[in-house]
Amino acid sequence: MTLSENQIFDIFLKTKALLTGHFLLTSGRHSDKYFQCAKVLQYPHYTEQICSVLSNFFKYHQVDTIISPAMGGILVGYEVARQLGKKSLFTEREDNKMILRRGFNLDNGEKVLVCEDVITTGGSVFEVIDLVKSFNAEIVGIASILDRTNGNIKFDYPFKSALKLEVVSYSPEECPICKENKIPLIKPGSRKVFK
Fold this sequence. Notes:
Elements: H1 5-14, E1 18-24, E2 30-35, H2 37-41, H3 44-58, E3 65-69, H4 73-84, E4 87-94, E5 97-99, E6 111-119, H5 123-134, E7 138-147, E8 159-164, E9 169-170, H6 176-180
Parallel strand pairs: 3-4, 3-6, 6-7, 7-8
Antiparallel strand pairs: 1-2, 2-9, 4-5
């Protein structure tokens, strides 16, 4: 069974993964909405159902390996890899640079699918793409649970998201929530952001 976007959105609501307030996103931008995918991913049956949208899209692509940026993308990448019967790797940030650790490696010409939980500016995904290319491996596509790019990001590869939502985000200088100064800014994600 393939879930519709409405069904996936209902899962976000049911798991209380859609937060409202004043949030500092990993991209450094501010928003009044935050999608805490970890609240969805804590339920294996939801993870399996949502990731099947991604694995079904890429099942006819030639994929050797799934790679995901830590932390948010790890469970997404692992579940997509499980469904496709492929290897799953994840990248980590060291000295503010995305790297492979733990003995992970990519071979020359290896066909790689990048998986992420949420894409807003694509910053982490572009870093992973650059890392994959540094191994002379080949990107075959990008997959994410949630696309909140508002159509502003173009990848040079097939891109599939399970849910696409237009959510406004602001540069810190333009943030109307900051200007009102009524709701404190919080950073719910895993990556440190330097303002």
